[in-house]
Write a structure and sequence with these properties.
By secondary structure, this protein is mainly alpha-helical. The chain has one domain. Helices cover about 90% and strands about 0% of the residues. The protein contains two helices and no strands. It is elongated.
């Protein structure tokens, strides 16, 4: 059960990254500073996805 919750959070980070990229594309011509902030959010969210994925797999291997 715990692994399913961790997977849900992993995909939540991907959803946040996609939403941030959408906001970058819609705000690029209007407000560049805000777009740069959302680019940083997207990069951090993708990094957190890979970190959480590594952490979950590490925990699964320990429990086996």
């Amino acid at each position: 059960m715990r692994g399913k919750i961790y997977k849900l959070f992993e995909y939540g980070y991907i959803a946040m990254a996609l939403f941030s990229i959408y906001l970058v594309l819609t705000n690029w011509s209007e407000n560049r500073e805000r777009s740069y902030m959302f680019i940083i959010f997207a990069v951090v969210a993708v990094g957190m996805y890979f970190f959480k994925r590594w952490f979950r797999k590490n925990m699964e291997n320990r429990s086996k």
